[in-house]
Amino acid sequence: MPPTLKEQFQSRPCHIAIIMDGNGRWANEQGLPRLEGHKNGVKNVEEVVKLANELDLRVLTLFAFSSENWKRPRSEVSGLMELLGDFLTNRESLLHDNKIKLRIIGRKWELPRHIQALLNKTEKATQKYEKTLCIALSYGSRTEVIDAFKSLYEDIQKGACNPKDLDWNCIEKHLYTEGLPDPDLIIRTSGETRLSNFLLLQGAYAEIYYSPKYWPDFDRNEFVKALELYASRERRFGKTGEQVKAGC
Ligand code: IPE
Ligand code: IPE
Ligand code: MG
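A: This is the predicted complex of the input protein with magnesium ion.
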């Protein structure tokens, strides 16, 4: 039996976040409508969730819809929402089979009502599991900062927080990602080398792997390449290499 991903990688991330990009170009290159690209993108989500489980990953975050993606043609936005609805209705078993809880980050309240209801139902039904599939929907780091400021301000007004004591721990509690570890590895597919407003604060020390493959073609081989890159890095968090080697 070949080794599992967990056996293959001693040094492995605890949280991987993926910018699933390139569905549209994947479809264009095959003369298909963009929505076909998104459909194949959803199929690939299932494959990558299984790979993450084989790695025994604690958190997998997938960037599925950004705060800026609302600017796309209305038909594409509604097609994407429909695909999300289908996924939640028909594929909840993927989460149960792999013992994964669903967590949404982003402005959930901006999504269509029936999608919000499905998301709430699935989040509740999978809450008991330890591993997390976090889906970023209507997510953008800048809106996250705005929303964090607003809720922090409310806490200050209520007297629950003294601005003089503000530190990163306190700010972190007001981000959508409250309670989640920071991503150790961010992967972006489709050859683009930008972060597009994704986890800009949480990814402060993330390693980044840019895959040339479009998201529907991102496979085990590419996942392994990203893990190899991660394993080859020395993460110093501002210290010197000597300090890190000495374990201090
Ligand atoms: C990523 O693929 C999916 C979403 C942003 C919803 P794109 O739709 O951005 O695909 P490209 O970048 O146009 O190829
Ligand atoms: C980022 O991809 C958002 C998601 C993958 C959901 P985009 O395709 O929206 O990013 P830009 O516009 O190319 O930067
Ligand atoms: Mg794109």
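The mean pLDDT is 97. The longest strand covers residues 131-139.
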